[in-house]
Amino acid sequence: MTQSNEQPSAGKTPPGDLSAEDRKIVTLARSARARNGVAEGAAVRDETGRTYVAGTVDLPSLRLSALRTAVAMAVASGATSLEAAAVVSGSETTTEEDRAAVRDLGGATTPVLLAGPDGTLRTRLTAG
Questions:
Q1: Strand ordering across the sheet containing 40-46
Q2: Which of 1, 9, 20, 45 has the fewest beta carbons closer than 10 A?
Q3: pLDDT digits (tens, 9 = 90+) for 75-121
Q4: Contact between residue 63 and residue 40 where contact means Cβ atoms under 8 Å apart
Q5: Mapped to the 3 state alphabet, what secondary structure does the chain carry?
Q6: What is the pLDDT of residues 48-72, one digit of tens each?
Q7: For residue 101, what are the contacts with CB-CB under 8 A and spacing of at least 6?
Q8: What are the distances in angstroms from CA 76 to CA 11, 14, 103, 107?
Q9: What pLDDT shows up at residue 5?
Q10: Separation of alpha carbons 102 and 85, rounded Å
Q11: From the CA atom positions of the chain, what is the Rg in Å?
Q12: Which pTM value belongs to this model?
């Protein structure tokens, strides 16, 4: 096995810095994006550890980001809080509307992880 001396790019957190549970939701979000061929994939983890995975919804009469769709799925399934959220996207940031949806269910301190299409964590912020 070879070892790399390459340092992570500025603003990116090495995957090893994520807990196993957070790596799982990033992986699930990445899989949803790839499987469905959509702009974004997202996953949220509720207070009991259940996960909800979604992709972008882009219909003529209904447009939802992947993260808002995942939050809606959690609410519809009876979740009362969120522990964490993850989005895999080509975008460099999450929208205020997406963070507001997470905040509505999980509170202002709920972590929101933004990863690139390759699953590399770009940003770790809170819903607040």
A1: 51-55, 40-46, 82-89, 111-115, 121-126
A2: 1
A3: 999 999 999 999 999 999 999 999 999 999 999 999 999 999 999 99
A4: no
A5: CCCCCCCCCCCCECHHHCCHHHHHHHHHHHHHHHHHCCCEEEEEEECCCCEEEEECEEECCEEECHHHHHHHHHHHCCCCCEEEEEEEECCCCCCHHHHHHHHHHHCCCCEEEEECCCCCEEEEEECC
A6: 999 999 999 999 999 999 999 999 9
A7: 67, 68, 71, 72
A8: 35, 33, 16, 18
A9: 35
A10: 7
A11: 14
A12: 0.86
Other Cβ atoms closer than 10 A to 85: 31
> Which token pair is 9?
């790019």
**Both structure tokens of 115:** 């990863």
Q: Place 17 in a pLDDT band, splitting at 50, 70 and 90.
A: confident
Report how far residue 65's alpha carbon sits from residue 4's, in angstroms, rounded to the nearest whole number: 36
